[in-house]
Amino acid sequence: MKTIDDFLVLLQDDLGLPVTNADVGAGFDQVPGWDSVHLLSLLTLLERTTGRSLPLADALEADSLEEIFRLAVAA
Fold this sequence. Notes:
Largest sheet: none
Mean pLDDT: 93
Shape: globular
Structural class: mainly alpha
């Protein structure tokens, strides 16, 4: 996963979230279908996809999916 488009595919295909590019920068309360369980599922998926651990504390501080994407590519 190298691009935001790759990230969107993960969200759509693996988590079943109907998100678009417009949703990535929105707050979590604006993301269609998002709930707290998705965060844990997403972190697990990203760790499996990238082969790197993502700190839960950093993810909890994120305000958007875009911030989680940045954490994943920076890790």
